[in-house]
Amino acid sequence: MFKKSGETETGFFARNKTLMAISTLMGTVIGAGILAIPYVVSQSGFLFGLIIIIGLGLALLLINLMIGEIVLRTKEQHQLTGYAGKYLGRWGQRLMMFSMVFSIYGALTAYLIGEGETLKAIFKIGTPLMYSLIFFMITFFIIYKGIKAAGKVEMILIGGLLFIVFLIGIYSYDKIDLGNLDSYSWTKFFVPYGVILFALMGFPAVPQLQEVLEHKKQQMRKAIMIGSLIPIFIYILFAFIVIGIIGLQNFELLQPNERIATVALSIYSSPILGIFANIVAVLAMFTSFLTLGIALKQMYEYDYHFSKNTALFLTLSVPLLITALNLSTFITVIAVTGAVAGGLEGILIIFTFWKARLLGDRKPEFLLGQYKTLGMILILLFGLGILLELITLF
Predict the structure, then answer these.
(1) Residue 58 domain-assigned?
(2) What are phi and psi of 40, to 5 degrees?
(3) Could you read off the pLDDT of 207-258 as tens digits, one per residue?
C-alpha cells in the first residue's frame, strides 16, 4: 500500500499504458471533493447542480486538453509552473506556483477537518478535533519519513467508496425520495460552483501522462477525454443517490462538518454500510493527505532549499492552525480552494496554451483549435467565480 518516494510502479497498469494514463488522471481528479458535492447541490437543487457539473466538467475537459497540447508542443518536460514560466514569463510562473500552493493547503486543511468528522462518526466517542489531532500526529511522522501512498491506491479506495455508496443506494432504494431532487433555488444557483470545480480539478496529472504513455503519446488525447469524462458521470450518480436519500432538510439539521456525504449517510441511511463508507473515506483522505503533504514539503525543501524540519513546519502548520482554531469547515475550505485556486489555474492555462501555439518547439501529436472566443468566456467565468466566492466568504 505504501512505498518510499521515487520508487517505480510495476504490474498490470504499467503494462497497459493507455489504461494507466486514464487511471492516473481519474485518480487525481476523483478525491475527497466528492464528499462535499451532495450538500452544496442540494442547496441549489439537483437540476442546477447537474447543469454546473456538466458545464464545468466540459470546461475542465477542454482545459485538460489544452494542457495536453502544451505538453506535446514542448521538448522539455515540466510541471504546470514550468510551462507557465516558459511561455508566460516569471509572473506566470509565480502566479501558477501561488495557485498550486493555495490549492494544496486548502486540500490538506479539508482532509484534516474531514478525517476528524469521519473518525468521530465511526467511533461515536470523543470530539472531531481529537481525531483530527491524532490523524495529524500519525501523518506528521509518515511525511517526515518520506513515505507516500502507492500510485493507484487512492483510486482503488475511491472506487471502493463509490461501490459502498452505490450499495447504500441499492439497499436504501425505498428511501430515495424523488421529491428531494425536484426543488431548486435561483438565489443559490452559484453555491455548488467552488466545490464542483475543486472536485473536477486534476491539472497537475496531465503533464505526467506523457511519462506514463512513453512512446504512445498519440494516445494522450484519448486518455485525457476518458479520464475527464468519467468523473462527471460518477459525480452526477453520487449526488443523485445521496441527495435522494437525505434531502436538503435533513442536511440542514446537521452540524456544518456533519454534512460530509458519508457522515450524513451513516446518520440517515444504513448505519453499517455508512460505517464502511466512512472507513474508506478515511483511507482515501489519508492517502491524499500523504501525497500532497510530501509534494509540498519537497517543494520547500528542494526548490527553496529550506531545511527538512522547516519544510515540514511550513507544510503542516497552516492546516493544523485552521483546524485547531475552527476557522473554517470542510465544505467551505473546498469551495474557496476550488473557486480561487482552480479559477486562477484555469486562467493561466488558457494564456499558456495561446502562447504555446506560437512559441512551442515541437509538433504535437494532436491539435486543438485556437478557442479564442471560448477561451475568453472561460477566463471571464473563472474570474467571476473567484470574485463571487471571495465576496461570499468575506
Answers:
(1) yes
(2) -70, -35
(3) 888 888 877 888 899 999 999 999 999 899 989 999 999 999 999 999 998 9
pLDDT tens digit string along 78-116?
Answer: 888 889 999 999 999 999 999 989 999 999 999 999 999
For residue 103, what are the domain limits? 15-393
CB contact at 8 A, 232 and 54: yes
4 is a domain residue: no
Whether residue 153 lies inside any domain: the answer is yes
CA distances from 311 to 27, 94, 299, 368 (A): 26, 19, 8, 40
Go through 200-225 and write b for each residue having 16 or more CB atoms within 10 A of its CB, e for each that does not: bbbbbbbbbbbebbeeebebbbebbb
Say how many domains are in the chain: 1
Q: What is the CATH number of the domain that holds 51?
A: 1.20.1740.10
Amino acid letter for position 8: T
**Chain centroid to CA 287:** 13
What pTM did the predictor assign? 0.88
Asked whether residue 10 is assigned to any structural domain, the reply reads: no
Is residue 214 within 8 Å of 16, Cβ to Cβ? no
What are phi and psi for residue 147, nearest 5 degrees? -100, 135
